[in-house]
Predict the structure.
Amino acid sequence: MVRFRPSSALTSVYYTPDDTSQSSIFLYETSLITDIAALLVPGRGVTDTVTSAAIYAVDACAHHRSKLSEVVAAIGANVNHGILIGLFRDTVRRLTANEDVLYEVVDALMGLIAYVATSPPHSNQIIGAGIIPLLLDIPKTTVEKRVNVSCQSGNMLTPSMSRVPWVSLMQSFTAHHKD
């Protein structure tokens, strides 16, 4: 039963336009985002299949303009001890320890992180929460789909690093001190 609610929410939210979802789905299901985000807390014994469905559902909600801030708040994307960073830290730990991780969890998580990281109001929050060290740990994995995961990590690092102030300071320093 737990597996079907995030999946049905995902389908409803993903295929419904913003105004319709706001007046029908989110009006009657006011705690939908926080309920689904609660399934993402690491260590609760939720299976990888349910976790991937929940991540996809939260990601679908985030793609509605009016719900992005609510999603970021529900998953705690702006803090190091939030749900998103905690789940990502646990997933990276499992990947580097060669534990079984469903690839859909990794793919869904990378998609959600990439979307939040490219959202102008929230990109600095997710970087400040400590996503960069975790992205740098991903190439250390030896899982079957290592190339896919490493490429996704690299694609997220490039725009993230350009937002960190010390990078622009370093670029201006090296440009100024060229000899």
The chain has a mean pLDDT of 76.
